[in-house]
Amino acid sequence: MTAARLSFADSLEDPRTALFVLMLHLLIWTALPLLVSRNLPLDVVEALAWGREWQWGYYKHPPLSGWIAEMARWGTSNWSLFLLAQVMVTAGLAGAWLLGKDLLGTRLATLALIATEGVHYFNLSSTEFNANVVMFPFWAWASLSFWRATQSGRLIWWLVLGLCCGLGTLGKYVFLLLPACMFIYTLVHPAARRCWATAGPWAAAAVFALILAPHVSWAIDNDWATLQYALGRGHSEELARTGSWAQEFVHFVLAQSLVLLPLWALLRSLGPAAASSRPAEQRWLLFTLALAPLLLIMTAATLAQAKMLHMWASPFFLCAAPLYLAWRQPRVLNTSRFIKATLVWVTLTALVFAITALWGPQKKHRLDRTSYPGREIAQTLTAQWRAQTGQPLRIVAGEPFVSGTVAHYSDDRPTVFYDADFSESLWLQPEQVHRDGALFVWPIGRGDTAMPPPPADSREQVQALLARYPNLQARPTLLIHTSWMGKPYTVAVAWAVLPPASVRP
């Protein structure tokens, strides 16, 4: 037992141990969703619908998540998209490990890497590739490059910083909090302020601006559609009416505290810790990377009286473990207790994920999005479209999840016309819909009980569509009888056909 413990402790000095941990994470959290899902989640089908169009922006987010999803797409399969999510997480964890190696050495950096499994943002909540996950590698590598740039002054790390911040912002605007905190640090701290006398920060700013320039140009041409969505997402009519800003603040703090609790418990299992002695400049830099973005988003949201969505903070904690250990280091490492606690936590999270995905629909009496029979629906509707029009399906319109699912699993790979709304589908023009026609889809039910009537808003939407498209032909509701974990379910999809102009009477 002692020999085994010594062997593991010695292995922590080998960088290959960190590589093994990264590859193990990649394998587990790619395989799990692949084994318990048959349909891609909402955010993934949205990213695929955006990426197909290769725009410099979309009404919800900047373009990077869509572009990367499109590059990772492998036909109508799911595995490459689940793998993509974990590639982004693993790349972020690798950057955090390198930062930890600079701060702590290989042994503690690897322990910090293992402890980061305690943050559910990087396992349970990371299987759905989206605009949050796409920020992960750029957040960690920006933190690493800023540390190295300020400590060494080398121009290359300033250039990497500008690259990472530019790409991260192309993922999601919340990324701007990190370079904002870095900028404030270089202005406020006297020692850091001297860096502005060198070319480094100016080069970083130039790279950052160069990367963002095409997106900014797109945003100007499209009335800042993405920014308007982001501001609308943060606005809450209920908060405006009740003024319950303190409650919103407390909920956000509690949520992030619960997220960090397992990480803190794992790090504490290493043994008693003591404050490390570092120069004041480094201590403030650690604070900038670890806590400043969190405090800034809470301050900004409170001043703006806006909602604070919990997942917005998901990239903030990639480097939390090495930064914590850089502040407080264990006096004696109890690696045996730490590894046991980590194995228990990882096993628990994997079981929770699998059980929720497999048996969640039975409890709710309706299928989840990841158990939705999207492939069968897409193939059936594509065949119906081709039989009626004699042409490939080029546009699918309607509710985002169903239309995006049809677009991904259809062999024709149509463009998505979100909610039949041109303001949400900025890549489409009315003349294209008139010329190519469209398949309109909207969900009615995905449960095992009697098929519910269409919601009132769906009926109103259909009437509005008929007024816009007199040639729209409603079709009988598509019923897909399927099963999940041995239980039958009936999925109902309402659909209609707007024939292409070339086949209309």
Secondary-structure map:
Layout: H1 2-11, H2 15-36, H3 42-51, H4 64-72, H5 79-104, H6 106-115, H7 136-152, H8 155-171, H9 177-188, H10 190-193, H11 200-221, H12 225-234, H13 237-242, H14 245-268, E1 273-275, H15 280-290, H16 292-304, H17 320-327, E2 328-330, H18 335-364, H19 374-389, E3 395-398, H20 400-409, E4 415-418, H21 430-436, E5 438-447, H22 456-468, E6 473-484, E7 487-498
Parallel strand pairs: 3-4, 3-5
Antiparallel strand pairs: 1-2, 5-7, 6-7
Helix pairs in contact: 2-5, 2-6, 2-18, 3-4, 3-20, 5-6, 5-7, 5-17, 7-8, 8-11, 9-15, 9-16, 14-18, 15-17, 19-20
Structural commentary:
The protein has helices spanning 2-11, 15-36, 42-51, 64-72, 79-104, 106-115, 136-152, 155-171, 177-188, 190-193, 200-221, 225-234, 237-242, 245-268, 280-290, 292-304, 320-327, 335-364, 374-389, 400-409, 430-436, 456-468, and strands at 273-275, 328-330, 395-398, 415-418, 438-447, 473-484, 487-498. It is an alpha/beta fold and 505 residues long. The strands form two sheets. It has a five-stranded mixed beta sheet with strand order 4-3-5-7-6. The chain has a two-stranded antiparallel ribbon with strand order 1-2. The chain has 22 helices and seven strands. Helices cover 61% and strands 10% of the residues.
